[in-house]
Amino acid sequence: MASKDAVMEKFVATLVPLGAAEAKAMFGGYGIFMDGQMFAKISSKGVVALKADSENLPTFEAVGMPKAGKMPYYEVKAADLSDAKKLQSWAASSIAAALRQPAKKKKK
Hints:
Blueprint: H1 4-14, E1 22-26, E2 29-34, E3 37-42, E4 48-51, H2 57-62, E5 73-75, H3 84-100
Antiparallel strand pairs: 1-2, 2-3, 3-4, 4-5
């Protein structure tokens, strides 16, 4: 199994056609952001999970992605990480899901 750092670097590189993704270290893994919105996470074990909402969830469930914890993220199977077109399509839907979320209110 590849390290979380190697997975993050490859994942971010795969997303270049979609824009400039930014990885931020958090919770022992990484949060992956586009346009200031977190749309993916990489666990400390190097597992990639993509944000889901009512629009892209049916796609993720149809391909058998398991839910990653209590948050609305679904795990990408290791075998699918090498399919750039599939990964880009799924990531684009997760970016859209993140952008559909209402903006969080800033603490005063």
